[in-house]
Each structure stands twice: as C-alpha cells, then as structure tokens.
Amino acid sequence: LVQVAESGGGKVQSGESLRLSCKASGVTFANYVMGWFRQAPGKERERVAIIDTVGATNYAGAVKGRFTIFKDNVETTLYLQMSAVEPEDTAMYYCAVDRSYNMMINGWAQHWGQGTQVTVSS
C-alpha cells in the first residue's frame, strides 16, 4: 500500500519562509519522480516543482528562485523549502509520486497526498 502524507503547512506573513515535508511509504523512493502541486480556491491545480530520480529539478515560473525542492532517499521524505512567500502562494499543497516524469510534468500522478494548507498574509 502506497501512502503519501504532507506536513508543514501553516499561516505565515509575506516574505517569510516555510518548509513542507512529504513522507512516502510503500514505494522504492529513489525510483520515483516526486512533485509538489498546489490548488488555490477557485483555481485549477498547478504544478509547483518536480524532482526526478537523479535529482534534476523543474520549477514553475512563479516560484523559481524562491522555492527549492529536494529529497532524502534514506528518510524517504520529499521537501519544499518556500522562501519569500507571497499572498499568491496561498493554496493547498499536494505531494505527488509517479514513475513517469512526462506524466507528472503534465499534471498527472499515480499517488497523491491529502494536502497541507499554506496561507500567506500580507
């Protein structure tokens, strides 16, 4: 059974930092592509960042230079370090796990977490 669980969300002020975590179990962690997506109220889900099996990363333009995705294969945990957050970053953040980079870059993944809420106030 594959389980994906996010944590670390909360309420922060504009300009502050926050780190999200995603613990994945039931998969050979190092063999999967991992990603963060987000969905704000009234908007479609959007890709935030992806990291592939060799550590190569891809970021959405809106977060490039402010967010960093990284993972710990030993701890089977994915992270999203969010810096200089903005009110526009307010959303539910989801962790995604899949074998296919191409599928994830197009917004699809086999396994999803329940999400963690991030709220940024100005």
The gyration radius over C-alpha positions equals: 13 Å
Alpha-beta classification: mainly beta
Largest sheet: 7 strands, mixed
Estimate the helix proportion, in percent: under 10%
Counted by DSSP, the helix tally is 1
Oligomer: single chain
Taking the alpha carbons of the first and last residues, their distance comes to 41 Å
Mean pLDDT: 96
**Which strand-content bin applies to the residues?**
over 45%
Write a concise keyword list for the protein shown above:
single chain, 122 residues, mainly beta, 7-stranded mixed sheet, 4-stranded antiparallel sheet, 11 strands, 4% helix
Summary of the model, kept short:
This protein is 4% helix and 50% strand. With 122 residues, the protein is mostly beta strands.
Describe this structure in words.
This protein has 122 residues and is mainly β. The protein has one helix spanning 101-105, and strands spanning 3-7, 10-13, 18-25, 33-39, 46-51, 57-59, 67-72, 77-82, 91-98, 111-112, 116-121. The strands form 2 sheets. Strands 2, 4, 5, 6, 9, 10 and 11 form a 7-stranded mixed β-sheet that branches. A hairpin with a 6-residue loop joins strand 4 and strand 5. The longest helix is centred in the C-terminal third of the chain and has 5 residues, at 101-105. The model has no long low-confidence stretch (mean pLDDT 96).
Please describe the topology of this protein.
Layout: E1 3-7, E2 10-13, E3 18-25, E4 33-39, E5 46-51, E6 57-59, E7 67-72, E8 77-82, E9 91-98, H1 101-105, E10 111-112, E11 116-121
Parallel strand pairs: 2-11
Antiparallel strand pairs: 1-3, 3-8, 4-5, 4-9, 5-6, 7-8, 9-10, 9-11
